[in-house]
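#struct-pred
JK: can someone run the complex with pyridoxal-5'-phosphate? inputs below
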Amino acid sequence: MSFANEVADRYRTTRSESEQLHGRAKSLFPANGATHGARILEPFRPYIVRAQGFRKWDVDGNEYVDYCMGHGALILGHGNQAVVDAIKRQAERGLHYSENHQAEIEWAELITRMMPATERIEFCASGQEANLLACRVARTFTGRRRILRFEENFHGWAGEVAPANSAGVSMPDVTVLPMNDTDLLERELATRQYALVMTEGSGAHMGQIPWDPSFIRDLGEMASAYGTLWMVDEVVTGFRESRGGWQEGVGANPDLTSLGKCVAGGLPAGALAGRADVMEVFDPKRPPEKRIRHTGTWNANPLQCAAGVAACKQYLDGGPQARATELGAYFRDTGNVRLRKRGIGARLYGRTIVHLYLGPLESDSSDPVYPPTTSPDRIMESAQTITNNQLCLRLLERGIATMGGRMFILSSIHTMAALEHTVEALELCLDELMEQRTVLPA
Ligand SMILES: Cc1ncc(COP(=O)(O)O)c(C=O)c1O
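RT: done, structure tokens with the ligand placed:
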């Protein structure tokens, strides 16, 4: 029997209830029983029954340190008391009024206080919706049609924000450029046909491929010079990277910002925010051809607003963001000391989301946000190998739940002890994979 099968079999024996549920799920959910692309794993991810703080437990009683954290939404951890209380209070007062209410104003005021570039806001149901709305806003405001995006930047799964070349997607008005190439960017913007240029905050795939800071500076200036609006997708970074998001850290001043995940403290929501003059496209007094009528059953529903207010109040002093950054640095740096010492061809990098790079170490940058290679292809190869499945499974066996064995999403309430346990488990797993030559020495 191969090592991979041996591990899968061992994993199964302590997860018989999960395996049974997976059997039922497979006949309902076509993606091998999973309900999200990131939850597909061979043989299956565990079925979770409870989560609290930085931990979660599966139906078979196995405990995990959670590094998925609501796909990045839970910087405050699972079951944050203020958020839970706010949801309970609101649920008792009504789930949906189909009317205006006070919490939507409070939530928007908190967001504009933290991010100065967000003068006006439209709430919606998800991050992707906010990005799709940005395309319409930019087209209506500029009178242009085309959208400019960057390779590997993730903005959602549908329509013109989907990854390029996705099955079933047609995007005739979208151009996708390689990241960090200023000359190419200028050549495109100079055609003056672009309504909007979109960038993921901190870099592609939650910071896996970071931006070159000088490229971002040039992009802001060029977009403005050629009459193209710039939207920063802060769905992941908004209120995670710092109080004012990624844009605060790099001193960016985008025309539009999309938000999701952390903004609603763990409930589904999105927001498109931006310059007051641009957002005038929602003004009902404008003629129909120059105006967007933004309908959406879940726009600013009381439950998400209550959770959003409770969460955003906690982000105001920057405390959770600073703590998550500190914990991320500890995990990354401690892990890298061990990986170097063991001679493993792998490095950890990033801030509150720590990525694992597996592959040739081409440059060992002193800046911990950067991977040990400048090649986006190498980074993506590293993130999409079969090794990730095996690593993910082995980590789950040792009580560590990651996003695909390559991403560790931290909260502000992980503990040092949990991080140390994780570093040890990671080292053991990589050691095993190195013995089989699945992971190579440095
Ligand atoms: C950077 C980024 N933008 C947009 C989205 C889509 O957000 P949602 O899943 O809320 O639609 C995601 C989801 O992971 C994301 O990572």
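RT: quick notes.
The first strand starts at residue 48 and ends at 52.
The chain has a mean pLDDT of 95.
JK: thanks, will look after standup
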